[in-house]
Structures are given as C-alpha cells and as structure tokens.
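Mods, move this if it's the wrong board.
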Amino acid sequence: MKMKRWYFIFFLLIASIFSFQAVSDIYTYTDKNGVVHFTNVKPAGNKFKVYLKTPDNRKARPGVTPVPAKDKSPERFTRYDKYIKEASELYVIPMPLIRAVIKVESDFDLNVVSVAGAEGLMQMLPGTAERMKVKDSFNPRQNILGGTKYLRTLANLFEGDLLLTIAGYHAGEGNIIKYEGIPPFKTTIGYVKRVLKYYVHYSNSI
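Not the wrong board. Structure tokens:
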C-alpha cells in the first residue's frame, strides 16, 4: 500500500486542526466547488456534519488496574539500549523509531498499564503479546523484541509505509485496512504526530 500525495496532505491538514489533547469535536462539509472544510468550532445550522467525535473519558476495562508512568529518572532513557539495539538489528527497524514508540507509549517506564490493559515499555496488549510470542510483557527484553516484531509485521503488511506502520501500531492493522489508510480516530492521528516528532528527535540525536 503506497502513500499517495493527496493522502499525506490530507493527513497533515486534519492533524493540524487540533492538538492531541484538544477536546473539541471536528466538523466538516464540502462546498459547491468540491472543497472540503474542517473546523473544531461547532458551527450554526446544519451545513457541517460531525467528522470526528471526541470520546468520553475512557474507563478501564473490567479486570484492568491502570498504572501511569511514574519513573522520572534520567537513566530510564538509556537503561534499555542493548535491547533496543538487539531488536533493531533483528527486525530491521530503525532504533530511533523504536525509541519514539517507547517514549510515546510508556515514557520508558516498564510498569505502565493502560486502561485497555496494554502493558510495559511498548504497551503490548495481551492478544498482540501472544501473537508476538511475548510471555511476560513486563520483561523489558521480551517487550521490546515483541513490540519491534509487531512494527516489522506492520511494515511488511503496509509495504514500508511509515505513517501506516505507526498508525497500525496504535489502532491495529484491521482498522488501517478498513479505512484504507490512517483511520479518522482523533487519538490515532495524535499518536502518529507524536511518534513522528520523537522519531525525528531521536534520529537527529544519533
């Protein structure tokens, strides 16, 4: 699946409308000239339609006890270097991309658990962890190898498309296939923006 120019521009336009932490819904309409308009300010009348609906605050799944990132030690950013290097060489995924995903997913805190039940540095959901042969998501080596293996799986599936690989890591490959691109989920669009930002940052730090 190749990234078309119009699709990349469309992603940038949508992503620029709102920040990841914005709380507004997104509205859209197409004028008589075929130009698509977006706004995060609720318009009067019925010309605009809801494009992205801001979800209510997410609640933890039954049986899940969320654990936020608490580790603030500077050492955490280099603590797992050998595993990141190993995973990068094994699955041919750039080290800066692995670091970027870890930064966004857990801020390099091994003990993080999301409201959805994702665990560890690269926030492996139980089902994904099982697919990637990860037995203990809180084991840093297993988690990083498993998360990087999933990135490689996505990169292969989407023919090396970086944006789709990152979006797929967040939303799942099924949603990428369903929407034939980055799905119109506010959280996924924000996730891609943040991972790309850190990917550039870590790439420039080499």
